[in-house]
Amino acid sequence: MNSVSESYKNNPLHLKHIIPLDFKTALKLPDSHAWTLPDHPMADPLTHAAVPVIDLGSPQAATLIRQACEKWGAFQVTNHGIPIKLLNQVEFQTRRLFALPANQKLLAGRSPEDFTGYGLPRISTFFSKLMWTEGFTILGSPLDHARQLWPHEYDHINFCFTRN
């Protein structure tokens, strides 16, 4: 069985499935990003249920996570033990990253055979239209990508080593 990295190297993406649309400079919506209702059906537009909130201290946490993944594909956790100060710093650095101009973010772009760096998610190839999203996938240390984005040490060190 191949590892994930071997699978990605053996099945590289086309650039259109890697580079996100620069929404700040787009003057009109390109056809490649125009999803119609049949392209993206809603499960039940009348459902007003909230995304599940799961207390990690609960004895049923594992079961609740499984159920949330099966039904929603997402959930929010509480009692995770991560200090709010650290979460705020991570959010600040994330906003700092995505506020960069598109050409600067592309310096840390994901290569066609890789899965880390800036770009569209790998699942984008499964859809007929391109996604309205951008992402930065980190596996291990983000230091190499951070150096590409911020060549001055004090800039990339702050991104990689958020302190509590």
Automatic annotation (TrEMBL):
Occurrences of domain Non-haem dioxygenase N-terminal (ranges): 51-152
Keyword Nucleotide-binding attributed: no
GO molecular function: metal ion binding
Keywords: Iron, Metal-binding
Domain of life: Eukaryota
One Pfam short name: DIOX_N
PANTHER family given in the database record: 2-OXOGLUTARATE (2OG) AND FE(II)-DEPENDENT OXYGENASE SUPERFAMILY PROTEIN-RELATED
Name recorded for this polypeptide: Non-haem dioxygenase N-terminal domain-containing protein
